Amino acid sequence: MPENQTIDQNVDNTVDKTEVTSTPKQPISKFGLQETHTVEGVDYTFQFPGVKDTIELVDRSKNRFGNIIDSLYYQEIMDNVIVSPKVDWDHWDTNNGLREVMALADNFLGRQL
């Protein structure tokens, strides 16, 4: 609806002069957007590192043929996406759900791009 447009007619066909002012939509930054998922009883919070950083972390996770190396990609996710709890490889020796958490994090990143 254009700014300051006047609405002339109500549902019951009575005339009413109501001024409607719209505010232009401001783009909402996705940087820092968070999402939490519970896997095997542990709450994992993901945080979006930004578009450029996400693309760069994916690039760092590829081999010379452009294929994703899981160990590199998972490390990038642990370092740059999972903000709570802070996890490393030792975490997965005592907690189940590595592939599920990584798939959720990958899906989270993909939805932001």
Annotation keywords:
3-stranded antiparallel sheet; two-stranded antiparallel sheet; alpha+beta; 5 strands; 4 helices; 37% helix
Could you characterize the architecture of this molecule?
- There is one protein chain.
- The chain has helices spanning 51-60, 70-80, 89-94, 98-112, and strands spanning 5-9, 15-20, 34-39, 42-47, 82-84.
- The chain has a domain at 34-112.
- Helices cover 37% and strands 23% of the residues.
- The two termini are 29 Å apart.
- Strands 3-4-5 form a 3-stranded antiparallel sheet.
- It has 4 helices and 5 strands.
- The mean pLDDT is 87.
- It is flat, with a radius of gyration of 23 Å.
- By secondary structure, the chain is an alpha+beta fold.
- A hairpin with a 5-residue loop joins strand 1 and strand 2 (15-20).
Strand order of the largest sheet: 3-4-5
> Span between N and C termini?
29 Å
Mean pLDDT, to the nearest integer, reads 87
Structural class: alpha+beta
Helix content: 25-40%
